[in-house]
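Q: Joint fold for the lines below.
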Amino acid sequence: MADCSLDLPGSSSPPSHLSLLRSWDHRRVPPCPALQGTPLSATLSLVMSQCCRKIKDTVQKLASDHKDIHSSVSRVGKAIDRNFDSEICGVVSDAVWDAREQQQQILQMAIVEHLYQQGMLSVAEELCQESTLNVDLDFKQPFLELNRILEALHEQDLGPALEWAVSHRQRLLELNSSLEFKLHRLHFIRLLAGGPAKQLEALSYARHFQPFARLHQREIQVMMGSLVYLRLGLEKSPYCHLLDSSHWAEICETFTRDACSLLGLSVESPLSVSFASGCVALPVLMNIKAVIEQRQCTGVWNHKDELPIEIELGMKCWYHSVFACPILRQQTSDSNPPIKLICGHVISRDALNKLINGGKLKCPYCPMEQNPADGKRIIF
Amino acid sequence: MAVQESAAQLSMTLKVQEYPTLKVPYETLNKRFRAAQKNIDRETSHVTMVVAELEKTLSGCPAVDSVVSLLDGVVEKLSVLKRKAVESIQAEDESAKLCKRRIEHLKEHSSDQPAAASVWKRKRMDRMMVEHLLRCGYYNTAVKLARQSGIEDLVNIEMFLTAKEVEESLERRETATCLAWCHDNKSRLRKMKTCKKALQPSRREPAGRGAPGHGHAGLPARHAHLPVQAPESGVRLHRLPWFFLLLTLCILSDLLDPARWRMLIQQFRYDNYRLHQLGNNSVFTLTLQAGLSAIKTPQCYKEDGSSKSPDCPVCSRSLNKLAQPLPMAHCANSRLVCKISGDVMNENNPPMMLPNGYVYGYNSLLSIRQDDKVVCPRTKEVFHFSQAEKVYIM
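A: Joint structure:
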């Protein structure tokens, strides 16, 4: 006779369904031949009917409990639809880059350059292979070396980095970089972490600090002071912050920054700056597009050469001078250059022409009268 | 970081960019939930049926062996129910956990520590790049980048790999995988608005060529003989529920030229995006376009290249070409940057004009002053320091 032990589920969440299913035990015992043909006893019959009822109830409960989850699942979907925009409108028509096959190639090239700068060399190689792009070796070379040093730093091997720092010592000093000192410091701290056994080695290594004594006096004092706690263990001393693993992350960053300055590169690749500025610009542009459509004044963004609204990216993104005429509130261009009046105020040429009254010009910001021809074109 | 993004700005950007990140795993969860419910309902009904039979037998005066055999049946059905339910619920659980992981990751954007915030931003760029690379078809690169950046479960790799299999089979002119995909997603495909348009009969294929019973069960036979449109009459194929087109293609596959297969692949791609509620362009492309526009100025495109700045992204080689067809940034307020030092010229560093009309910052002029003379870096003319006049910018 088969033996079923049933456990009714306590709660209605899926994991309890699993536990319910796991507790079902369906061992089978083959029927004894002697019992065949004999009628079932009344008690057994009763037990069996009870079992049947239990089975039916349990499976029905399983199905209905699972169905109850449906409302939660659909609520998730509705929350996503409510809180996120399902469509992004482009700044220009969608196909502005698709239409030119070359543009796609250029974009892949930009991505490859970005990957090299970020140090993801294997990914860059793979992309070159898949998109059949060719990158010149002399572009790659400095990145290959930097990457080698960075990988060593990630494995806490300071050797290559120190070599590099020593060979570029002069230029690093011009940059006011403390890279070499920091590398020596990390090595010293690592020796300290080795415990009292490394004490002598640490002390003799400390001689490397001598050239930096003037600039980094305080830090050298701290490190020398920590030697006191060497026997007790640095972890429990006031100097435990020296053992912080964030120093390693910091040294990688310092190295990257200084190396990029030496190479004349910005730390962030042009692609990441553009992408970051896009992240700022995109919601602003979508907002204004929605407002334009709502107020039905699509003529405002007809001027496809310029965005309809200014995007604030912060002062670090001011790479070029932009002069906006204070009167006409427009950018100046080659056909409409900025003109400096005699009094020193600057307006655009179109504004100047508009202000001419009877051959004379009065500056809008000070009461000085002057000849229009005296205005001098300036170049920022 | 060069671009300043406040927490409020980050939230706004999240709202605009992250719909695909959450919607795709949610749709998978929904699909698995419905499949689980269907399985459970079906097996439950089987169990109920067998138990009812057992109860009926018990109500009479049964013999032991008949009861035993019925019980065996019940046990078998119960074990099938258990197995299927466990599988389905585990699949659901996995989907739900994936959704949860992604939501947790997105929540980290508002972390207080600046280091964590910059790591999140870097991951965001990597995520968008992976999705862009997947759309372009560079699958190996995308998978490698995802693995290296640690964002494997934050990007929709599986969806694109499934699509890749279908596309590759279509390129080999095999329709089996694609039809299987249609069948798998038929309920959602039906919900999408695919309207049928009457097509002109093709001149190449004789009308009524398709035989209704070509062995593709599940597709209604009355649509069997849809003729394929002649290529000269333009592409209106996108209006057709293209899986019916597929049926015709199966029949006529050796008569069709590669162009139609390419169109079909393209159509499949767009419909796959629509099915998952994605747009036709990657979020990365749209964001990049917006960003390049916001930085682009006329100085980046001067013909003589004299006003290019080494830091400006749009002045860099590749991005310069990319940004050409895009609109320029709008500036309502002047912002002046000294050409020598790159510093801002304002009341702390007033702009000074040399007699040749070129303007530099006062501090920079001080730094290049030698013996009371300055040399204009752009024209190499030499002037007296006192000849520099202050310029007033309103």
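Q: Anything notable?
A: The radius of gyration of chain A is 38 Å. The longest strand of chain A covers residues 3-5.
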